[in-house]
Predict the 3D structure of the following.
Amino acid sequence: MKPGQSANDLRLERSMLFVPAARFPTIEKAAASAADAVCIDLEDSVAVDQKAASRANVVQAFNGLDFGRRIRIFRINGLETSFAYRDLIEVAEAAGGNIDLVMVPKVNSPEDIAFVDKLLSQIELHCSLDHRIGIEAQIETAAGFLAIREIARSSSRLEALIFGPGDYAASMQMPSAGIGEFDRHDDVYPGHRWHAVMHAIVAGARANGLRCLDGPFADYKDSTGLDRSCQIARSMGFDGKQCIHPSQLPVANAVFAPPAEEVVQAEQVVQAYEQAVAGDRGVMGVNGKMIDAANIRMAQMVLHKHRLISGKLDLRKKR
């Protein structure tokens, strides 16, 4: 967590559902889906000749649809294109009060985030917005991988680092049969092919109080492969996963939710801590094991996620 930040400041993002900005009926369905977050995409899923016109759909969706407790995100085009700055200006000026986060693709350096941060500051000042729009950064290039440490601490707006396996594979010239899928190259490699970049993303996120999400699994009909992909990401410390189809949401939501036994253990740890504080005791134990400050922080995070999932708290951070 960042300095001065508590567990209660953190958003829940087990699942993020991507939806093309060019298809408004699909956006309407996504707004009522089981996703923790909905990302309206202006980048890869929108044809070049539809990008400018699709911004109006993003504005209409954020201003007119009820997203309920879901986090509201839109992805701009890459900063190397001619679309990105207009994506930010046209959408944020018209709907900034209803936007939680901007996703920036193919982040290569901290300067990329600084540019978006500065432009958002100008928009918020011009429009007198009463809240700050956050940023999520996609790590999906060789340059981005090498700059994760600097990117992760580049802006107070930055909330999450996200792995983009498709573009990362292309950038690294790694053969891949499908985005995020397992293929024969994974079978022959003596280990996990994506371990280095995924581990670096988690480390960069945790060192700076950020969330971290795994990228999508392209074959939405392969629930077994999706579950394996989610389990690997969860075991590495990721908070959630991007999804490209509503059918993937139940798997992601289940894998990245604290299991019942973890919730019970967390409740016991917090209760033991509170009793120790009340009794002015410094050493605590639960089920025969000593617990310390790290155990307490982890327990508080588990309980916070559980309360968010159960609907006792709003998924969207109070600002």
